[in-house]
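Entry type: protein chain
Record version: 2
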Amino acid sequence: MNKSEVMSFMSEFRQIELSKGHVYLCAFDVTKFSAFHMRKAQIILPARLKAAVPKRQAEFIAGRTLASVALKKLGFPETLIPIGKHRSPVWPKGIVGSISHNASFAVACAKLTEDNSAMGIDIETLFTESQANEVQDLICHQEDFKWFNQPPLSYVQLITLIFSVKESLFKAIYPNIQRYLEFQDAKLIDLNIETSVGRLELMIKNSHNTSRYYEFEYQWVDNNIITFISV
């Protein structure tokens, strides 16, 4: 794939170094996306996206392109990553990974594994205050509220972080539990704002070889937050 051709709708390729792995990020511009990019990317759209609006197609292509970048860094050749049950990516044998996007950015991560390791990543645009107020009671466990008013994090930053990190957790553990969880099935039990690290506790009964506690990292990129879990 010619980089200049990809860069015509994707830009700002970055590798973000975190303590437990590398995260790959790029910006993309839906207004510059066309069928030309789908052909050049050589990424097969799932049937449900073939007639979708360009925004949905661009998000998918950007995410899968970054996933290929993550796999290349691990020594894998060009690899298609199909969609499995409940729309989750199906990674090559011996790999765990995760993909996420919002309206302007895509992120991906992957690592080699021989056990029940897991990864989850999420990117969210900072909520508005009205959005934060609307979702607060849906996403927060009752004990999450004690973390409110933790300067320098604002209320909307904390709500966005809680939403995003629980999304990362659910992506990480889905391959083991094979079912969706509710936001209140996990709670925030530790948050170090200086190091951008925290921990979640999973509240469901542990019958799927999953852990009870999960450390996460987060990083702000402009007006967006990336949350990352690797276990």
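Comment: The helical segments are 3-7, 35-41, 54-73, 129-139, 155-177.
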